Automatic annotation (TrEMBL):
Keyword Signal: yes
TM region positions: none
Keywords: Signal
Signal sequence, start to end: 1-23
Keyword Signal: yes
Gene3D superfamilies linked to this entry: Bactericidal permeability-increasing protein, domain 1 (3.15.10.10), Bactericidal permeability-increasing protein, domain 2 (3.15.20.10)
Entry protein name: BPI fold-containing family B member 1
Boundaries of every Lipid-binding serum glycoprotein N-terminal domain copy: 38-258
A GO cellular component annotation in the UniProt record: extracellular exosome
């Protein structure tokens, strides 16, 4: 038997209708990566691409000889000295801490990569190795580039090393003549080294950036399993905001057969907040997407409760309430006294700065026994919960607490017309002991969020902003 006819459902929805924040033009989800994350992952990508090994292989000697041949006025003694160098290479190389900074131009980041190298040379003219300390800096730009054939993407360009950032010094002091020759050798290195670094290391930096960017894209668009179905992300557009890389994301919900049940898109990507208080990253999920996830996990359903077997003290309280309305009806309540609760909407989440709440529309019917097909009465109820988002391990958890009844309407009464406000306390207890545990039970497994550990962080925290749910690393 259906609990209520179509006209009752229509009237209920018109009477209740949970109030939600209007949809905005923000993307359904936004992954915001701060400079700390960019530096760490680009540094790792440079290691994976063996950047320091490339520095060890810089052709210092051939570059210096080529350079010296292009300077006819170069001291003949120095040219002779270069011919006697039998071995010269980088003996140690380190990539120091990267810096990621906003550019003077919109949608552009400056990446600075400092290099610390030591080179050595051997010549029959000197018994010991002559060593040079070399410090320089590579600068590259990250820009948003539009494409005619596809979506915009981030690109690294203008990779270069300037002689203005180059510093060379002689590590060991030898004879006056050798020191003088070594200084002249360093003078040749000053214009030669930046070009060598550009030719040999910049392609590696470009590949490392591409690897990092693709890794970020995979993390941003990785599907999130739900039960049932999944949440699937796609890239709307990348952006650069301050020192951050931003991925504006679209989303779709899939059922257990991988069929799309709902799309979330936005052609307008408004400026979302940067990672808060210098947090390494943040993930923001728009309110309507949060509600769609909850709708998947907590679908509409009908509950049947034999009240005296489940919560006998509340059954007695309900009988007392009905006795005040109609004593004859109260006497008909048997041991199998039954309550049916039909949820005509999933809990609808409202996200505000002060926290999250959930509203839900239900119809509640009271039957004297489980064999009766005609209820004593039917009530349309709008409930309100406290919604608490938190992290447990690597999972997003949601729990409902403190249920209350905001509005209540008598839909049908077969005992006598009455004001349902008189039994509001009893009805609240029925919902607290039945509906709330049922919905929290569906949410108890949580939603896996692999993003946090993939970005290198162990703990995370969820917080609520107006119209969005926000994930950041836990700094405590």
């Amino acid at each position: 038997m259906k609990m209520a006819g179509p006209w009752i459902v229509t009237f209920l929805c018109g009477f209740l209708g949970a109030t939600l924040v209007q949809a905005d033009l923000r993307p359904p989800a936004v992954l915001n990566l701060g400079p700390e994350v960019i530096k760490e992952h680009l540094t790792q990508a440079l290691k994976n691409n063996h950047a320091t090994a490339i520095l060890h292989e810089l052709p210092l000697l051939s570059a210096m000889r080529d350079r010296s041949g292009s300077i006819p006025m170069l001291d003949s003694l120095v040219q002779s000295f270069l011919r006697y160098i039998i071995w010269m290479k980088v003996t140690s190389a380190n990539i120091l801490q990267l810096a990621v900074q906003p550019s003077a131009y919109d949608q552009e980041l400056v990446v600075r990569i400092p290099l610390d190298m030591v080179s050595g040379l051997n010549t029959p003219l000197v018994k010991t190795m002559v060593q040079f300390q070399m410090n320089t800096e590579i600068q590259a730009l990250i820009r948003v580039e539009k494409s005619k054939s596809g979506p915009a993407h981030l690109n690294l360009s203008d990779c270069s090393s300037s002689s203005h950032t180059l510093r060379l010094s002689l590590l060991n002091k030898l004879s006056f003549m050798v020191n003088s020759l070594a200084n002249k050798v360093m003078n040749i290195l000053v214009p030669a080294l930046p070009q060598m670094v550009k030719n040999h290391l910049c392609p590696v930096i470009q590949q490392a950036f591409n690897d990092m960017y693709n890794d970020f894209l995979r993390l941003a668009t990785a599907p999130i399993p739900l039960s049932p179905g999944a949440l699937d992300f796609g890239l709307l557009s990348p952006a650069i905001q301050d020192s951050n890389i931003v991925f504006n994301l679209k989303a779709k919900l899939l059922d257990s057969q991988a069929r799309v049940t709902k799309w979330f898109n936005s052609s307008v990507a408004s400026q979302m907040e940067t990672t808060p208080r210098g947090a390494p990253f943040s993930l923001l999920v728009r309110q309507d997407l949060v509600n769609a996830i909850v709708d998947t996990l907590v679908p509409k359903e009908e509950l049947v409760i034999l009240l005296r077997f489940v919560i006998p003290e509340v059954a007695r309280q309900l009988q007392a309430d009905i006795n005040e309305i109609n004593a004859e009806a109260a006497n008909k309540l048997g041991p199998t006294q039954m309550v049916k609760i039909a949820t005509y909407s999933s809990p609808q989440i409202v996200l505000n700065e002060g926290g999250a709440t959930a509203a839900q529309n239900i119809i509640l019917e009271v039957f004297p026994t489980n064999t009766d097909v005609r209820p004593f009465f039917s009530l349309g109820i709008e409930t309100n919960y406290e919604a608490r988002f938190f992290t447990e391990g690597d999972r997003l958890m949601l729990n409902f607490n403190n249920i209350s009844i905001d509005r209540i309407k008598l839909m049908i009464s077969n005992i006598k017309l009455f004001n349902p406000e008189s039994m509001k306390g009893t009805l609240t207890k029925i919902l607290e002991y039945t509906l709330l545990p049922n919905e929290n039970g569906k949410l108890r497994t949580g939603i896996p969020m692999s993003l946090v550990k993939a970005l290198g962080y162990e703990k995370s925290v969820w917080s609520v902003t107006k119209g969005a749910l926000k994930l950041t690393p836990d700094s405590s």
